[in-house]
């Protein structure tokens, strides 16, 4: 099976959707673990092979710690997705005449992305989630600046897509 993966300006819309879903899953997961930890009595959950024990709350605290670590991973996920989008954008032999359509598409995406940012902020400031969301400072900062981030990524992708049209091909 041969894959013909090529990038486009729509990749930035998909990037914003992926980080939105990732952030919501992580924050809601943290809320669930926090509420479950409060409801579970302190008991021995696991007997370790070295003779020690781990309590149920200790296991849940480890899970919360892992989810909080995802906050620090958020910028790396964004950078990795952007690098992939740039690499895929170089695979498109785009003619400069399509730059107008691409810029128009970017403008539409720039109008839609603030709605995603607003959805995240509305979810993150809801009564049951706000206490957990406040612990995810990097993620909240990303979504507060998401329209700017997506605009910059879009500009870089447009440059990457149309620089290849100016580059001489191997057969020339």
Provide structural commentary.
By secondary structure, the protein is mainly α. The protein has one domain. It has helices at 11-39, 56-90, 99-124, 130-133, 137-144, 146-166; strands at residues 44-47, 53-55. It has a two-stranded antiparallel ribbon.
Q: Give the spatial strand order of the biggest sheet.
A: 1-2
Q: What letter string, H or E per element, gives the SSE order? A: HEEHHHHH
For the record, the count of structural domains works out to 1
Q: Report the strand count.
A: 2
General form = elongated
- End-to-end span in angstroms? 30 Å
Structural class: mainly alpha
Question: What is the radius of gyration?
Answer: 22 Å
Mean pLDDT: 82
Strand percentage lies at under 5%
Number of helices: 6
**Low-pLDDT windows of residues:** 1-5
Share of helix, binned: over 70%
Biggest β-sheet, characterized?
Answer: 2 strands, antiparallel
